[in-house]
User: Fold this.
Amino acid sequence: MKSIILRILFLVAVVTTGFFLLNLTKVKPDSTEKPITAKDSIIVSKSVSDTYEVKAIKVPEYIEFAGERVPLEKADIFERLDRELLVNTYWQSNALLLIKRANKFFPLIEPLLKKYNLPDDFKYLCVAESALIQVPSHKGAAGYWHFLRATGRQYGLEVNDNVDERYNLELSTKAAAKYLNDSKRKFGSWTLAAAGYNAGNARISKRLKEQKVSNYYDLLLNVETGRYVFRILALKEIMTNPKKYGFLYEKEDLYTFPKVKEIIVDTAIDDIADFAKQYNITYKELKLVNPWLRETKLVNRSAKEYKLKIPIE
Assistant:
Protein backbone atom coordinates (compact mmCIF):
# COMPACT_ATOMS: atom_id res chain seq x y z
CA MET A 1 0.00 0.00 0.00
CA LYS A 2 2.84 2.35 0.88
CA SER A 3 4.54 1.73 -2.48
CA ILE A 4 1.33 2.54 -4.36
CA ILE A 5 1.03 5.87 -2.56
CA LEU A 6 4.65 6.73 -3.39
CA ARG A 7 4.08 5.96 -7.09
CA ILE A 8 0.98 8.21 -7.16
CA LEU A 9 2.89 11.05 -5.49
CA PHE A 10 5.76 10.67 -7.98
CA LEU A 11 3.35 10.79 -10.93
CA VAL A 12 1.65 13.93 -9.59
CA ALA A 13 5.06 15.59 -9.15
CA VAL A 14 6.06 14.81 -12.73
CA VAL A 15 2.82 16.19 -14.17
CA THR A 16 3.02 19.33 -12.02
CA THR A 17 6.62 19.98 -13.09
CA GLY A 18 5.68 19.50 -16.75
CA PHE A 19 2.89 22.10 -16.55
CA PHE A 20 5.26 24.52 -14.78
CA LEU A 21 7.95 24.23 -17.45
CA LEU A 22 5.39 24.53 -20.24
CA ASN A 23 4.15 27.83 -18.82
CA LEU A 24 7.72 29.15 -18.64
CA THR A 25 8.22 28.63 -22.36
CA LYS A 26 5.13 30.58 -23.38
CA VAL A 27 5.95 34.12 -24.49
CA LYS A 28 3.15 36.58 -24.74
CA PRO A 29 3.26 38.68 -27.90
CA ASP A 30 4.02 42.34 -27.43
CA SER A 31 0.90 44.42 -27.72
CA THR A 32 2.44 46.40 -30.58
CA GLU A 33 3.41 43.32 -32.61
CA LYS A 34 1.35 41.03 -34.76
CA PRO A 35 0.92 37.61 -33.12
CA ILE A 36 3.02 34.82 -34.67
CA THR A 37 0.93 32.37 -36.63
CA ALA A 38 1.70 28.91 -37.99
CA LYS A 39 1.81 30.37 -41.50
CA ASP A 40 4.49 32.86 -40.46
CA SER A 41 6.72 30.08 -39.13
CA ILE A 42 7.11 28.40 -42.54
CA ILE A 43 10.55 29.11 -44.06
CA VAL A 44 10.41 29.35 -47.83
CA SER A 45 13.64 28.10 -49.47
CA LYS A 46 14.67 29.81 -52.69
CA SER A 47 15.71 27.69 -55.65
CA VAL A 48 19.25 27.86 -57.06
CA SER A 49 17.95 29.71 -60.12
CA ASP A 50 17.04 32.71 -57.95
CA THR A 51 20.69 33.36 -57.13
CA TYR A 52 22.75 31.68 -59.89
CA GLU A 53 22.33 31.34 -63.62
CA VAL A 54 24.19 29.26 -66.19
CA LYS A 55 23.37 30.75 -69.54
CA ALA A 56 23.63 29.15 -72.96
CA ILE A 57 26.34 30.71 -75.11
CA LYS A 58 25.62 32.18 -78.50
CA VAL A 59 27.90 30.50 -81.02
CA PRO A 60 29.42 33.10 -83.40
CA GLU A 61 27.82 33.19 -86.82
CA TYR A 62 31.25 33.09 -88.42
CA ILE A 63 34.60 31.83 -87.22
CA GLU A 64 37.74 30.73 -88.99
CA PHE A 65 41.08 29.17 -88.24
CA ALA A 66 44.13 30.58 -90.06
CA GLY A 67 41.86 31.96 -92.78
CA GLU A 68 39.92 28.70 -93.21
CA ARG A 69 36.18 28.98 -92.55
CA VAL A 70 34.50 26.67 -90.08
CA PRO A 71 31.31 25.15 -91.61
CA LEU A 72 28.97 25.99 -88.74
CA GLU A 73 25.94 25.26 -90.93
CA LYS A 74 26.63 21.57 -90.25
CA ALA A 75 24.83 20.53 -87.07
CA ASP A 76 27.63 18.40 -85.62
CA ILE A 77 30.21 21.16 -86.25
CA PHE A 78 27.97 23.70 -84.51
CA GLU A 79 27.49 21.38 -81.51
CA ARG A 80 31.19 20.58 -81.17
CA LEU A 81 32.15 24.25 -81.12
CA ASP A 82 29.30 25.01 -78.72
CA ARG A 83 30.61 22.33 -76.37
CA GLU A 84 34.12 23.77 -76.27
CA LEU A 85 32.83 27.31 -75.81
CA LEU A 86 30.75 26.16 -72.84
CA VAL A 87 33.52 24.08 -71.28
CA ASN A 88 36.16 26.78 -71.59
CA THR A 89 33.88 29.69 -70.62
CA TYR A 90 32.50 28.05 -67.48
CA TRP A 91 35.88 26.73 -66.36
CA GLN A 92 36.35 30.34 -65.32
CA SER A 93 39.52 30.08 -63.25
CA ASN A 94 41.40 28.29 -66.02
CA ALA A 95 40.24 30.65 -68.76
CA LEU A 96 41.19 33.71 -66.73
CA LEU A 97 44.63 32.27 -66.03
CA LEU A 98 45.11 31.68 -69.76
CA ILE A 99 44.18 35.30 -70.49
CA LYS A 100 46.66 36.49 -67.85
CA ARG A 101 49.47 34.29 -69.20
CA ALA A 102 48.76 35.25 -72.80
CA ASN A 103 49.65 38.84 -71.94
CA LYS A 104 53.03 37.52 -70.79
CA PHE A 105 53.85 35.20 -73.69
CA PHE A 106 51.92 36.33 -76.80
CA PRO A 107 54.20 39.37 -77.33
CA LEU A 108 57.09 36.88 -77.54
CA ILE A 109 55.30 34.26 -79.66
CA GLU A 110 53.57 36.51 -82.21
CA PRO A 111 56.71 37.93 -83.89
CA LEU A 112 58.20 34.42 -84.02
CA LEU A 113 55.14 33.06 -85.81
CA LYS A 114 55.40 35.89 -88.32
CA LYS A 115 59.14 35.31 -88.75
CA TYR A 116 58.64 31.62 -89.50
CA ASN A 117 55.61 32.09 -91.79
CA LEU A 118 53.01 30.62 -89.49
CA PRO A 119 49.51 32.17 -89.18
CA ASP A 120 48.94 34.10 -85.96
CA ASP A 121 46.08 31.75 -84.95
CA PHE A 122 48.64 29.07 -84.09
CA LYS A 123 49.39 30.87 -80.83
CA TYR A 124 46.09 29.39 -79.64
CA LEU A 125 47.37 25.93 -80.53
CA CYS A 126 50.27 26.64 -78.20
CA VAL A 127 47.76 27.55 -75.48
CA ALA A 128 45.78 24.37 -76.12
CA GLU A 129 48.94 22.27 -75.92
CA SER A 130 50.62 23.57 -72.78
CA ALA A 131 48.40 26.28 -71.24
CA LEU A 132 51.65 28.32 -71.48
CA ILE A 133 53.14 26.54 -68.48
CA GLN A 134 56.02 24.07 -68.13
CA VAL A 135 54.10 20.91 -67.22
CA PRO A 136 54.80 17.80 -69.36
CA SER A 137 51.91 15.73 -70.67
CA HIS A 138 51.26 12.19 -69.49
CA LYS A 139 52.89 11.00 -72.74
CA GLY A 140 56.09 12.92 -72.05
CA ALA A 141 55.48 15.85 -74.40
CA ALA A 142 57.16 18.92 -72.91
CA GLY A 143 57.74 22.63 -73.36
CA TYR A 144 55.42 25.35 -74.59
CA TRP A 145 54.64 23.44 -77.81
CA HIS A 146 54.57 19.99 -76.17
CA PHE A 147 57.10 18.20 -78.31
CA LEU A 148 57.89 14.56 -77.68
CA ARG A 149 61.61 13.93 -77.23
CA ALA A 150 62.08 12.21 -80.60
CA THR A 151 60.06 14.80 -82.53
CA GLY A 152 61.92 17.64 -80.85
CA ARG A 153 65.24 16.16 -81.90
CA GLN A 154 63.93 15.53 -85.40
CA TYR A 155 63.22 19.25 -85.73
CA GLY A 156 66.59 20.38 -84.45
CA LEU A 157 66.11 20.74 -80.71
CA GLU A 158 68.72 19.57 -78.23
CA VAL A 159 66.98 17.28 -75.76
CA ASN A 160 68.86 15.62 -72.92
CA ASP A 161 69.05 15.66 -69.13
CA ASN A 162 71.26 18.76 -69.07
CA VAL A 163 69.70 20.88 -71.82
CA ASP A 164 66.15 20.54 -73.11
CA GLU A 165 65.37 23.09 -75.81
CA ARG A 166 61.71 22.09 -75.86
CA TYR A 167 61.56 24.57 -72.94
CA ASN A 168 63.23 27.30 -75.00
CA LEU A 169 60.35 29.41 -76.30
CA GLU A 170 62.20 30.83 -79.30
CA LEU A 171 63.75 27.56 -80.48
CA SER A 172 60.65 25.44 -79.82
CA THR A 173 58.46 27.93 -81.70
CA LYS A 174 60.86 27.70 -84.64
CA ALA A 175 60.63 23.89 -84.51
CA ALA A 176 56.83 23.97 -84.27
CA ALA A 177 56.69 26.30 -87.27
CA LYS A 178 58.81 23.87 -89.30
CA TYR A 179 56.59 20.97 -88.34
CA LEU A 180 53.37 22.82 -89.11
CA ASN A 181 54.63 24.22 -92.39
CA ASP A 182 55.64 20.70 -93.43
CA SER A 183 52.14 19.54 -92.52
CA LYS A 184 50.53 22.36 -94.50
CA ARG A 185 52.52 21.36 -97.59
CA LYS A 186 51.44 17.76 -97.06
CA PHE A 187 47.71 18.37 -96.51
CA GLY A 188 47.11 21.73 -98.17
CA SER A 189 45.20 22.89 -95.09
CA TRP A 190 46.20 24.67 -91.88
CA THR A 191 43.29 23.02 -90.08
CA LEU A 192 44.50 19.54 -91.00
CA ALA A 193 48.03 20.63 -90.05
CA ALA A 194 46.71 21.52 -86.58
CA ALA A 195 44.94 18.14 -86.31
CA GLY A 196 48.17 16.43 -87.37
CA TYR A 197 50.03 18.23 -84.60
CA ASN A 198 47.78 16.42 -82.13
CA ALA A 199 47.37 13.00 -83.73
CA GLY A 200 50.46 12.79 -85.93
CA ASN A 201 50.49 13.36 -89.67
CA ALA A 202 50.64 9.66 -90.47
CA ARG A 203 47.42 8.97 -88.56
CA ILE A 204 45.59 11.87 -90.17
CA SER A 205 46.74 10.73 -93.64
CA LYS A 206 45.47 7.23 -92.89
CA ARG A 207 42.06 8.48 -91.75
CA LEU A 208 41.68 10.74 -94.81
CA LYS A 209 42.44 7.79 -97.09
CA GLU A 210 40.14 5.38 -95.20
CA GLN A 211 37.20 7.78 -95.14
CA LYS A 212 37.81 9.15 -98.66
CA VAL A 213 37.59 12.82 -97.64
CA SER A 214 40.00 15.74 -97.75
CA ASN A 215 38.67 18.07 -95.02
CA TYR A 216 39.13 17.97 -91.24
CA TYR A 217 35.46 18.76 -90.66
CA ASP A 218 34.43 15.69 -92.70
CA LEU A 219 36.61 13.30 -90.69
CA LEU A 220 35.41 11.02 -87.93
CA LEU A 221 38.28 10.95 -85.44
CA ASN A 222 38.97 9.79 -81.91
CA VAL A 223 37.59 11.95 -79.12
CA GLU A 224 40.81 13.83 -78.38
CA THR A 225 41.64 14.84 -81.96
CA GLY A 226 37.96 15.33 -82.77
CA ARG A 227 37.81 17.99 -80.04
CA TYR A 228 41.29 19.44 -80.60
CA VAL A 229 40.66 22.02 -83.33
CA PHE A 230 37.38 23.06 -81.70
CA ARG A 231 39.18 23.71 -78.42
CA ILE A 232 41.65 25.92 -80.29
CA LEU A 233 38.73 27.76 -81.93
CA ALA A 234 37.00 28.23 -78.57
CA LEU A 235 40.19 29.55 -76.96
CA LYS A 236 40.65 31.97 -79.85
CA GLU A 237 37.08 33.24 -79.54
CA ILE A 238 37.16 33.65 -75.75
CA MET A 239 40.64 35.11 -75.49
CA THR A 240 39.98 37.53 -78.36
CA ASN A 241 36.68 38.68 -76.84
CA PRO A 242 37.04 38.13 -73.08
CA LYS A 243 34.44 40.69 -71.97
CA LYS A 244 31.87 39.11 -74.27
CA TYR A 245 32.25 35.93 -72.21
CA GLY A 246 32.19 37.63 -68.82
CA PHE A 247 35.90 37.94 -68.08
CA LEU A 248 36.63 41.31 -66.49
CA TYR A 249 40.05 42.48 -65.38
CA GLU A 250 42.33 45.47 -65.18
CA LYS A 251 45.63 45.83 -67.02
CA GLU A 252 47.56 45.40 -63.79
CA ASP A 253 45.88 42.00 -63.26
CA LEU A 254 47.70 40.55 -66.27
CA TYR A 255 51.09 38.83 -66.11
CA THR A 256 54.15 40.25 -67.83
CA PHE A 257 57.51 38.80 -68.81
CA PRO A 258 60.45 40.35 -66.95
CA LYS A 259 62.76 42.66 -68.84
CA VAL A 260 65.88 40.77 -69.89
CA LYS A 261 69.08 41.11 -71.81
CA GLU A 262 70.67 38.27 -73.75
CA ILE A 263 74.24 37.05 -73.44
CA ILE A 264 76.11 34.38 -75.39
CA VAL A 265 77.68 31.51 -73.44
CA ASP A 266 80.00 29.10 -75.28
CA THR A 267 81.65 27.45 -72.30
CA ALA A 268 80.55 25.17 -69.52
CA ILE A 269 78.97 26.62 -66.38
CA ASP A 270 80.10 24.60 -63.38
CA ASP A 271 77.62 26.14 -60.96
CA ILE A 272 74.60 28.09 -62.22
CA ALA A 273 73.96 29.62 -58.78
CA ASP A 274 77.46 31.13 -58.74
CA PHE A 275 77.06 32.21 -62.36
CA ALA A 276 73.80 34.01 -61.49
CA LYS A 277 75.47 35.90 -58.65
CA GLN A 278 77.83 37.50 -61.17
CA TYR A 279 74.77 39.32 -62.57
CA ASN A 280 73.27 40.15 -59.17
CA ILE A 281 70.41 37.72 -59.61
CA THR A 282 69.46 34.45 -57.94
CA TYR A 283 69.57 30.90 -59.28
CA LYS A 284 65.77 30.96 -59.31
CA GLU A 285 65.56 34.20 -61.30
CA LEU A 286 67.96 32.85 -63.92
CA LYS A 287 66.20 29.49 -64.25
CA LEU A 288 62.72 31.02 -64.52
CA VAL A 289 63.66 32.82 -67.76
CA ASN A 290 65.87 29.97 -69.01
CA PRO A 291 63.82 26.85 -68.19
CA TRP A 292 65.70 24.86 -70.83
CA LEU A 293 68.62 24.64 -68.35
CA ARG A 294 67.56 21.43 -66.64
CA GLU A 295 70.34 20.95 -64.08
CA THR A 296 72.45 23.01 -61.69
CA LYS A 297 75.22 23.25 -64.28
CA LEU A 298 75.70 23.57 -68.04
CA VAL A 299 77.99 20.85 -69.38
CA ASN A 300 78.58 22.16 -72.94
CA ARG A 301 81.48 19.89 -73.93
CA SER A 302 81.11 20.95 -77.60
CA ALA A 303 81.53 24.69 -76.91
CA LYS A 304 78.08 25.33 -78.40
CA GLU A 305 76.79 28.90 -78.30
CA TYR A 306 73.75 29.29 -76.06
CA LYS A 307 71.69 32.45 -75.61
CA LEU A 308 70.94 33.08 -71.95
CA LYS A 309 68.41 35.61 -70.76
CA ILE A 310 69.50 37.75 -67.82
CA PRO A 311 66.77 39.63 -65.91
CA ILE A 312 67.67 43.30 -65.66
CA GLU A 313 64.96 44.48 -63.25
Notes: Confidence is low (pLDDT under 50) at residues 24-29. The first strand starts at residue 64 and ends at 65. DSSP finds eleven helices and four strands in the chain. The CA atoms of residues 59 and 82 lie 6 Å apart.
